Amino acid sequence: MRQYHAGTMRTCRLWLVGTSSKILKERGERMQEVLTIINTVGFPVAMCVFLCWYIKDSSEKNREEIKKINDEHREEVREITKALENNTLALTKLCEKMGD
Q: Phi and psi for 97 in degrees, rounded to 5?
């Protein structure tokens, strides 16, 4: 086993402590940069997210309403088509009777 000089061990500890505090300081600086960026663009980003949600929600509601209107219109067209066929049949019978 190797014997280390007390000064060497102390130097290693100081280096580790210095390095770790440097890393923590860099992380702290990075966190500060991130927080600064969030504070700088936070409101616009939050508004963009909100507006995207609002547009999506509004689009879904509009889509449902349009589907409901289309279904109602489809039923109305069926009724009109049926009435038109009945009127055509009645006119055909009237024309046949008048032609006799």
A: -70, -35
